[in-house]
Amino acid sequence: MDALIPFTTSGSLVDLVDKKVMVILRDGRKLLGVFRSYDQFANFLLESCVERLHYKLEYADTDLGVLLIRGENVVALGEIDLIAEDRVPLIPRPLDEIRTKINEENRRKERDHLIKSKVLETVGFVSDGREGDAY
Hints:
By secondary structure, the chain is α+β, with helices and mostly antiparallel strands. The protein has helices at 82-87, 95-122, and strands spanning 20-25, 30-38, 44-55, 58-69, 74-79, 91-92. GO terms for molecular function: mRNA binding.
């Protein structure tokens, strides 16, 4: 009977050992690598780890090597389907090009936010915070 109860602790990570995974961290970074080991606190070790930056359908990877990740910083962790991964229409680009595009997009969003705030202030609304301030 106990074998039918699903793991709800770090023991549930046992199925991911030696598989390619994607990890999303609290700060928004996306890491890909081979899940090698973990402990009771869900701290784990990624091998052949890369940080992937996305801009629309373009991406660039930064090689990180072996990485020890503290479990409390993980938002999501999942196995990558190696067959489906090849069918995703992502276009590799140089890292500098992707960073430039992301920075331009962030500047545009900041400018749009300032314009919105000014318009809302004219009709009595106050912009106290930004998206994500609830953390």
